[in-house]
Fold this sequence. Notes:
The protein is mainly beta. The chain has one domain. It has 2 helices and 14 strands. The chain has helices at 3-19, 193-203, and strands spanning 41-53, 57-73, 76-80, 86-89, 92-95, 98-99, 102-116, 122-136, 139-150, 153-154, 157-158, 160-165, 170-177, 213-222. Strands 1, 2, 3, 4, 5, 6, 12, 13 and 14 form a 9-stranded antiparallel sheet that branches. A 3-stranded antiparallel sheet has the order 7-8-9, covered by helices on one side. A hairpin with a 3-residue loop joins β1 and β2 (57-73). The model is unreliable at 1-30 (pLDDT under 50).
Amino acid sequence: MRVSQRIVRLMLAGTAVAALLTTALAAPSQAATACPSGLLAFQATLSNGTFNIGKNVKTTGGGANICGEITVGAGGLVPKVDPNNISFTSGKTSAGPLSIPTDVKTVGDMTGTTTINPDGTISASFTTSVVVTTKILGQSCQIPVNLTLTTGRSGSLSGKPLSYDLATGVSKGKLVAGDFTVPKIKTTKQCNVIVATASNALIGLPLAAGKSSISYDIALKLGV
C-alpha cells in the first residue's frame, strides 16, 4: 500500500472519533457554527441507530450529522469538532407501552485507537461518556453512561470496519457497543424520589455489562 493511501485512510479513521461524539439517539439540535473546510475537513453521518437499555427501553431510527476537521496531536491524527456542529435526528424511544422524551448529550473527554487492517479497511475503537436525560411527569432525570464503541466485537455484538471508496471519497462501516453498564437514576432536585424509583423499576436499573447495546451505521467523507 502506498504511503499516501495510508495517510488518507488514517485521516478517515480519525473522523470516526468525531462520529462517536454523536452517540446521542435523540437530542435537540443546537445552533450550528460554520463548518470547517479544506483537505482535512470532514462530514460524518450516523444512521439506523438503535439504543437498547435492558429489555424494557429501546430507541430506534436515531442518527446524526456532524462536521469538523482533523488535527495532528501528540497521539497522531485526531478530530476537532465544535459541539454546535453536531445535529441530531430524533429516534423513537419506548419503555414498554410508554413513549419517553429523551435527550442525550456527550460529556467529558474522548479517547480512541485506530488500526489499518491488511485488507485496507480500518478498525476503530473509541471511548466517550454521555448523559441520558429522561423527562417524565415534569421531572428531568439523568443517567450517566460510559461507552466504548467499536468497529470490532463488543459483548455479543459485531461492528464492521470502515471501508474507503476512492471513487466516491466515502468511508462506511458500523459501530457497536455491547459491554457498558447503566447505573440507577439518582434522586435530585429535578428528579424526585417517586419518579426516580419508578423509573429505575420500569427500566430495570442498574444494569450490568452486556445487558444494553448501541449500534450505528457510519458514512464519512474527508476534504469537504
